[in-house]
Amino acid sequence: MSTLDDQAKESTDEAAVESTEAIQDNGTGGYIILFFILGFIASLLVGWIAFPMALYSKKEQPVAFNHALHMDEVENGCESCHFFRDDGSYSGVPKLEQCIECHEEVQGDNENEAHFVSEYVEKEREVPWLIYSKQPDCVFFSHAAHVLKAKMDCVTCHGPVGEMESLPVYEENRITGYSREVWGKNIAGLKKNSWDRMKMDDCADCHKESNNKVTSVQTEKDACFVCHK
Ligand code: HEC
Ligand code: HEC
Ligand code: HEC
Ligand code: HEC
Ligand code: HEC
Asked: Which residue's CA is minimally distant from atom 1 of ligand 4?
């Protein structure tokens, strides 16, 4: 009995010694942990802030355009400027001729309007708008299939662009040349809203969900040609 007690006592003593050693160790251990935390923070800063900043170059749109203001001025809503042609193709961003009826001459004392009129309307130059949702050339996308046939809302894919008072900054990926809208603002590729990202998987995920409607996807398992021509 007594020997067992002694052994138990001895082992608690050992444990006590070990724990005091551990406390003394904390001197260097603490630094190691501190270095680890600093290193971790530094890599987070690089990964989440410095890398995306280096990866994307910011570009300004040639003209500051205000969607919200124009929605009060036009008669046919979005279709006044973005419409389907008779052959079913989509007009996309408007051409100068769609602006001229109202901006033949400067109407207000707004410097953005003055810049637009003097640089583009008077010189008869098309505005080289940067396209946020621009997909690579190998991708085929049809607005008619989504908007006319599937009756989808612009917001599902573009977010609330049509209600904005100013244009978002355009960001171009220095390596791929793609707009940041394709990969999304979140560097890890996470998304909260349906319009946060428009990579191949995002198109495909929605096509899978609406499988009975996307005819070619239903019949052909790997129908690459649905989106690649
Ligand atoms: C008076 C003309 C006009 C009207 C009306 C208008 N837009 Fe636009 N829209 C533009 C111009 C000009 C651009 C190019 C600048 C830009 O990227 O915003 C544009 C660009 C866009 C883009 C960006 C496409 C891309 O990927 O770069 C979206 C999305 C869009 N419009 C949606 C809408 C929606 C939705 C409405 C209706 C709520 C609407 N627009 C009404 C003129 C108009
Ligand atoms: C139905 C008439 C109408 C059409 C069509 C129209 N605009 Fe305007 N636009 C206006 C009015 C009204 C204003 C406000 C005038 C002001 O205060 O300068 C304005 C303001 C502007 C401004 C200055 C606004 C700002 O917030 O900086 C720009 C730039 C502009 N328009 C560009 C365009 C472009 C580009 C198009 C063609 C895609 C277009 N507008 C088509 C009526 C129109
Ligand atoms: C299913 C998703 C989806 C829906 C719904 C959708 N778009 Fe788009 N839109 C896109 C994609 C993807 C592109 C880029 C296409 C490309 O680069 O080939 C685009 C491009 C555009 C452009 C720029 C085209 C250009 O290059 O000139 C405009 C403007 C636009 N969309 C407006 C709209 C409007 C307005 C609506 C609602 C009536 C709408 N879109 C609905 C996905 C969508
Ligand atoms: C939120 C849902 C959704 C997203 C996102 C989406 N699509 Fe679709 N797509 C559909 C639906 C639904 C149809 C079927 C329309 C119909 O025929 O009724 C369709 C049809 C198509 C078609 C025509 C297919 C056929 O069989 O004729 C093409 C091409 C296409 N999508 C390409 C794309 C591309 C490229 C993207 C991504 C840039 C994309 N789609 C994103 C829902 C989506
Ligand atoms: C639902 C539409 C859709 C289908 C189906 C689809 N893709 Fe894509 N694909 C895209 C879109 C959108 C992009 C551009 C965005 C990106 O890089 O994710 C793309 C990009 C690519 C790229 C990269 C091209 C580049 O220039 O970066 C390759 C390679 C590719 N797809 C191959 C395939 C193959 C192989 C299949 C068939 C197994 C396929 N895709 C089916 C929509 C689709």
From this structure: 206
Nearest to 120 by CA among 100, 136, 101: 100
CA angle 48, 49, 54 (to 5 degrees): 110
Query: Residue 92: left (phi > 0), alpha (psi -120 to 50), or beta?
Result: left
Whether the CB of 133 sits within 6 Å of ligand 2? no
* pLDDT for position 189: 74
Instruction: Tell me the ligand closest to 153's alpha carbon.
Output: 3
Q: Could you read off the pLDDT of 74-96 as tens digits, one per residue? A: 999 999 999 999 999 999 999 99
Residue 117 in tokens: 């009129």
Q: Residue-wise over 111-125: b if at least 16 C-beta within 10 A, else e?
A: eebeebbeebbeeee
